[in-house]
């Protein structure tokens, strides 16, 4: 029974911690006058992906490496198909041409990189992890350069900044809650998996992936409701890039991870689903309500597949 209590407490800490972290970080971004799309792909994406980072690195340190990879791949699929799909059903997501030609392909490329590295030796080693982190660093530098170019176009009303000391408190408290919550989730989820005879891979793809993706879902839905579709889409794409390149990169650099055949299959599914959504966006420069419904249905089919698997 304690495992379930710790699981719920862990999720609560993850979600609330991410909420605090995003508020503090987004206010800093506002003070620096960074555009909405850049905020979504960097500050907000990193904040909402902090639970995946905490869970995957904690899992790697504890030897539950299959859960680390499953959590990231499962979270990315959830982000793309459920978060993006639900937002599109709520309010069609306009997609800029630059996003379709740059950020979206990069998210697919990150998934392809994971598959190539994993299938080569059936593991993500320290060298692989360092390469992933370096690629993410280049991505971050590119985003900073893009922010400088678009800085003059920022609208003053986009976000209400906190005071300087409040930003610091929100960020520190948020990170602390995320780290503790991530540890609780890994311990309790692993114990529950063992009690029911379920594999850590299945738990990572379902319960943990859903729980750690809740910040993305809430943040993107709120952004879409406020008409900030750029932030909603940027949050999803940025989170998916962050999850693979930085989260798995750090986890692999800390402790080499074994890659299971199931992980490779799920990564192929992620690549396929990402390509489908990319084509949806390419045709009409937006992800409409019909597309959102199809994406949610595809995710339901995927859930059925992994549960029967």
Q: Would you give an account of this structure?
A:
With 309 residues, this protein is mainly alpha-helical. The protein has helices at residues 2-31, 36-61, 65-90, 97-121, 126-150, 164-196, 200-225, 229-254, 261-284, 289-308, and strands at residues 93-94, 123-124, 257-258, 286-287. A two-stranded antiparallel ribbon has the order 1-4. It has a two-stranded antiparallel sheet with strand order 2-3.
Characteristic terms for this protein:
309 residues, mainly alpha, two-stranded antiparallel sheet, 4 strands, globular
Topology:
Blueprint (H helix, E strand, L loop, with lengths): L1 H30 L4 H26 L3 H26 L2 E2 L2 H25 L1 E2 L1 H25 L13 H33 L3 H26 L3 H26 L2 E2 L2 H24 L1 E2 L1 H20 L1
Coarse structural class: mainly alpha
- Average per-residue pLDDT, rounded, comes to 78
For the biggest sheet, the summary is: 2 strands, antiparallel
Strand order of the largest sheet: 1-4
Cα separation of the termini: 27 Å
Strand share of the residues? Answer: under 5%
Q: What's the Cα radius of gyration?
A: 18 Å
What is the share of helical residues? over 70%
Number of strands: 4
Number of helices: 10
Query: What is the multimeric organization of the chains shown?
Result: single chain
Shape label: globular
Uncertain runs are none
The arrangement of helices and strands along the chain is HHHEHEHHHHEHEH
């Amino acid at each position: 029974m304690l495992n379930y209590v710790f699981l719920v407490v862990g999720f609560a800490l993850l979600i609330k911690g991410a909420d605090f972290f995003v508020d503090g970080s987004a206010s800093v971004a506002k003070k620096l006058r960074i555009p909405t799309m850049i905020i979504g792909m960097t500050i907000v994406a990193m904040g909402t992906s902090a639970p995946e980072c905490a869970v995957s690195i904690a899992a790697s340190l504890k030897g539950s490496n299959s859960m680390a990879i499953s959590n990231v791949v499962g979270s990315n699929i959830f982000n793309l198909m459920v978060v993006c799909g639900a937002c599109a059903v709520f309010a069609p997501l306009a997609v800029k041409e630059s996003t379709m030609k740059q950020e979206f392909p990069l998210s697919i490329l990150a998934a392809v990189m994971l598959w190539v590295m994993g299938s080569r030796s059936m593991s993500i080693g320290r060298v692989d992890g360092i390469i992933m982190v370096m690629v993410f660093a280049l991505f971050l530098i590119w985003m900073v350069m893009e922010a400088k170019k678009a800085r003059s176009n920022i609208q003053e009303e986009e976000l209400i900044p906190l005071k300087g000391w409040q930003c610091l408190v929100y960020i520190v408290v948020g990170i602390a809650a995320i780290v503790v919550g991530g540890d609780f989730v890994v311990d309790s989820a692993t114990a529950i998996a063992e009690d029911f005879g379920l594999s850590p891979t299945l738990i990572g793809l379902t319960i943990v992936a859903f729980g750690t993706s809740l910040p993305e879902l809430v943040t993107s839905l709120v952004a879409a409701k406020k008409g900030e579709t750029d932030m909603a889409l940027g949050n999803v794409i940025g989170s998916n890039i962050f999850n693979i390149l930085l989260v798995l990169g750090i986890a692999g650099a800390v402790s080499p991870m074994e890659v299971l055949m199931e992980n490779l299959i799920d990564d192929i599914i992620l690549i396929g689903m990402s390509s489908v959504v990319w084509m949806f966006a390419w045709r009409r420069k937006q992800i409409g309500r019909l597309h959102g419904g199809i994406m949610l249905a595809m995710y339901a089919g995927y859930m059925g597949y992994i549960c029967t698997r």
